[in-house]
Write a structure and sequence with these properties.
Elements lengths: L1 H21 L2 H30 L13 H6 L7 H4 L26 H11 L3 H13 L4 E6 L6 E6 L2 E7 L2 H6 L2 E6 L3 E5 L4 E4 L8 E4 L7 E2 L7 E4 L11 E7 L4 H7 L10
Parallel strand pairs: 3-10
Antiparallel strand pairs: 1-2, 2-5, 3-4, 4-9, 6-7, 8-9
């Protein structure tokens, strides 16, 4: 009995000792867990670094926008090469003074009067000369203005306020009712619309029947009777400058005979 009790007690003491010796193993396992975590973290960091090293640098670097204050304080970046090569803009033109070329004229005692006239009329020397020439060279004439229906063609012509109109009955004038008065070419000026003019000719091709491409109106043309002048349609003139009109019939259907019998029509385009 005593031997059995002592053996049982010895077994219990042995179990206690073995439990005590096995208990410290758990902290060791717990201590090994953080080291494994650190090992995994270092491995992941090494992997991310290797991936970052493998990525090529971006081709277009990011541009930093400078603030308005920074632009005011410093000159900033230089302009692009294509802008740097552009020449500087030209300076604005200097307006011509009314007496800019009066010093080149030998005006004598009329210089002061001439300069006063220019200033009053606000004209250059060329403008003042043109005004005087138009007044005296075309003395007794009126400056008429006119054009086609759509306004693409505009002209001015110096002629009498009392117009002498020819009503021709040739094949084309009869169809288009070509009533016109004749002036020398020097008294006619096309103001605009040269690119809108087209020309029709036939038979001898001496008469140049010009009309507007857009609206089809013939406001002037070059007549066969006066190739050195212009035939102007009075109904295409602006209102306010015509005082009276006298119409003369011209037998254009027998053109050669009519030209021989008429005494003045050949000289209508002469100065």
């Amino acid at each position: 009995m005593r031997r059995s009790r002592s053996s049982a007690a010895a077994k219990l003491r042995g179990q206690k000792r073995s439990g005590a010796s096995a208990a410290p193993a758990a902290p060791a396992a717990a201590a090994s867990a953080p080291s494994a975590t650190r090992t995994r973290r270092s491995a992941s960091q090494a992997g991310s670094k290797s991936q970052a090293a493998e990525k090529p640098p971006s081709e277009k670097p990011r541009l930093r926008r400078s603030s308005p204050r920074a632009q005011e304080e410093g000159p900033g970046e230089p302009p692009p090469p294509e802008l740097a090569l552009l020449p500087p803009p030209p300076p604005p033109p200097t307006p011509a003074t009314p007496t800019s070329s009066a010093s080149n004229l030998d005006l004598g005692e009329q210089r002061e009067r001439w300069e006063t006239f220019q200033k009053r009329q606000k004209l250059t020397s060329e403008g003042a000369a043109k005004l005087l020439l138009d007044t005296f060279e075309y003395q007794g004439l009126v400056k008429h203005t006119g054009g086609c229906h759509c306004g693409a063609i505009r002209f001015e012509v110096w002629a009498s306020a009392d117009l002498h109109i020819f009503d021709c009955n040739c094949s084309i004038c009869k169809k288009k009712q070509n009533r016109h008065f004749i002036v020398p070419a020097s008294r006619f000026k096309l103001l605009k619309g040269a690119e809108h003019i087209t020309t029709y000719t036939f038979n001898t091709h001496k008469a140049q029947h010009t009309f507007c491409k857009r609206c089809g109106v013939q406001s002037f043309y070059t007549p066969r009777s006066n190739p050195g002048g212009f035939g102007i349609a009075p109904h295409c003139l602006d209102e306010g400058t015509v005082r009276s009109m006298v119409t003369e019939e011209f037998n254009g259907s027998d053109w050669e005979k009519a030209m021989k019998e008429h005494k003045t029509i050949k000289n209508m385009s002469k100065e």
